[in-house]
Amino acid sequence: MTTLAILTAAGSGTRLGRDLPKALVGLDGFPLVVHAARRLASSGVVDSLVVTCPAGLDSAVRDVVAQDPHVDVPVRVVEGGATRQASVAAGLALAGPDDDVVLVHDAARPLAPPRLVRRVVEAVRAGHRAVVPGLPVTDTVKRVAPGRDESAGGGPAVERVVETPDRVLLRAVQTPQCFERTLLERAHAEGAGRAAAEGLAATDDAGLVEAIGEAVHVVAGEEAAMKITTERDLLVAGLLLEEES
Ligand code: CTP
Ligand code: MG
């Protein structure tokens, strides 16, 4: 049986604000999507790769990823959808009959190390059907009521705190996330509707699995799997890359 990796790269990178999609922005001379694909390939546990790309950029993405000498697994490129979830679904539709395990990873996390890829896949192959990397949270996190609190009137905008969850039990979740293929397919088919009906947040693939009532497990994440959203993140990633070499 084989492991398929879906690498999402179809976003536009609005918050980074460049004139090209974020996945094609360069870091140390290579596009983010290439960094991510290299690390997936060199994990040794990925058999093939599907990259989701922005409309009209299939050949540009195929050229940079499939022709990179360090990406030595078969690469297919598929146009993504309007949302990340739709892009993952487009990639998942290309899973073959032998792909029993599926990884979902974001080009926006270009430096997720190969050992992290192995860790999530090994946990799924050991029998946990949905596994995500997570890091302990260092800030105290508060849940607030939706909207502005108008109880005082005047002064700066305020929100009302509803709850302070125990930080010890919070994890900041990353990608790559790994799933038994049949479970991920069912989560994509049924999870979004269930999450909406029950007011649950399904902002990642694991959230869709939770929404259909199935267990999700967390393994140790990695600082290097940080997400690039802004120019500042890109600077930090550059420093991490320097540290790596
Ligand atoms: N993504 C995707 N298809 C979409 C939206 C996002 O494949 N329709 C991918 C992005 O390419 C990225 C990952 O999902 O690798 C995480 O999304 P995010 O960090 O939000 O990237 P962008 O959507 O590109 O950035 P922004 O939200 O700032 O526009
Ligand atoms: Mg986005």
Architecture blueprint of SSEs:
Layout: E1 2-8, E2 26-27, E3 30-31, H1 32-42, E4 48-53, H2 58-66, E5 75-79, H3 84-92, E6 99-106, H4 114-125, E7 130-136, E8 143-144, E9 161-163, E10 171-173, E11 177-180, H5 181-198, H6 205-211, E12 217-220, H7 231-244
The chain binds cytidine-5'-triphosphate (CTP) and magnesium ion.
InterPro entries: IspD (IPR001228), IspD/TarI (IPR034683), IspD/TarI_cytidylyltransf_bact (IPR050088), ISPD_synthase_CS (IPR018294), Nucleotide-diphossugar_trans (IPR029044)
Family: Belongs to the IspD/TarI cytidylyltransferase family. IspD subfamily.
Site (Positions MEP for the nucleophilic attack): 167, 227
Structure characterization notes:
It is a single chain. By secondary structure, the protein is of the alpha/beta class. 33% of the residues lie in helices and 22% in strands. It is built from seven helices and twelve strands. It has helices spanning 32-42, 58-66, 84-92, 114-125, 181-198, 205-211, 231-244; strands spanning 2-8, 26-27, 30-31, 48-53, 75-79, 99-106, 130-136, 143-144, 161-163, 171-173, 177-180, 217-220. Strands 1, 4, 5, 6, 7, 10, 11 and 12 form an eight-stranded mixed β-sheet that branches. α5 (181-198) crosses α6. It is globular. It comes from Isoptericola peretonis. This is 2-C-methyl-D-erythritol 4-phosphate cytidylyltransferase. GO terms for molecular function: 2-C-methyl-D-erythritol 4-phosphate cytidylyltransferase activity.
